[in-house]
Design goal:
Blueprint (H helix, E strand, L loop, with lengths): L3 H23 L8 E4 L2 E4 H22 L9 H20 L8 H20 L19 H23 L15 H36 L5 H31 L4
Antiparallel strand pairs: 1-2
Helix pairs in contact: 2-3, 2-4, 3-4, 3-7, 4-7, 5-6, 5-7, 6-7
Length: about 260
């Protein structure tokens, strides 16, 4: 017959096994990564490399379109003004006529960075560049990138609400009734989760489909899928920036 101490030891072992399994799950990764080790931290180097490439291209286009501004725009200036008007319309439609202007830079940066990252993964043949380990790909197919962008949006809409109402902003958690307090708090966790996993899942799925088709039918079939991937990547950038603008607009709603 087992003693009480034996049962306690068995219980302890089961708990240790559970925590070990949780830790192992947290170490699960998608794809192979090129790591940079800085002290005790390991960074996904391929994310930084491709992100810097995208940022450099965006800066180059911006400087090309604004270095010689003209009253009648043409060339890159005309293109950039079209993009700016498009992004202003997104912010205005979600935040309102009187609130949208300060947030145009944030919404525009989100859209352009995500679009650039998505297109970089869909159009540039990164696999031709051989790294010591892992491979280059779209930064948005790394969950760390999409979570970071989603958390930025969370901070943005908290800042927007607090700057308009102060601590009275938190009264929205008990409106229209205090019974909804747990649901309203949970909503603040589901928003960044929804934003990050939607973007990550769609970009990762697109790259996996193209990779599999490229292995099976190397020349013809992947091309239409790549074109579809470029379109889907654009839609995902639009959805992410539009939802971010909507969340910020919701946080400022009703505050005059």
């Amino acid at each position: 017959m087992c003693t009480c101490s034996s049962y306690r030891d068995l219980d302890l072992l089961n708990n240790l096994d559970f925590f070990n399994s949780v830790l192992n799950m947290s170490a699960v990764e998608v794809g192979q990564h090129f790591y940079w080790t800085i002290g005790a931290f390991k960074l996904h180097g391929q994310v930084f490399i491709v992100s810097w490439v995208v940022i450099s291209i965006l800066l180059l286009i911006s400087f090309s379109g604004t270095k010689n501004l003209q009253r009648v725009p043409k060339g890159w200036q005309n293109f950039l003004e079209f993009i700016l008007e498009f992004l202003q319309d997104i912010a205005k439609s979600q935040m309102g006529e009187h609130e949208y202007r300060p947030w145009v830079p944030y919404v525009s940066t989100l859209f352009l960075f995500i679009l650039g990252c998505n297109w970089a993964g869909a159009l540039i043949p990164w696999k031709l560049i051989v790294l010591p380990s892992g491979e280059l790909s779209a930064p948005t197919n790394d969950i760390n990138t999409t979570v970071a962008l989603a958390l930025l949006t969370s901070l943005a809409y908290f800042y927007a609400g607090l700057s308009k109402k102060g601590l009275g902003y938190f009264a929205r958690y008990i409106e229209p009734t205090p019974i909804l307090l747990p649901i309203n708090i949970l909503e603040d966790f589901t928003k960044p989760l929804s934003l990050s996993f939607r973007l990550f899942g769609n970009i990762l799925a697109d790259e996996l489909v193209v990779s599999v088709l490229a292995l099976l039918v190397p020349l013809i079939i992947p091309l239409p899928v790549m074109v579809l991937g470029v379109f889907a990547s654009s839609i995902q950038a639009l959805i992410f920036s539009t939802l971010s603008a909507a969340y910020i607009g919701e946080a400022m709603e009703g505050h005059e």
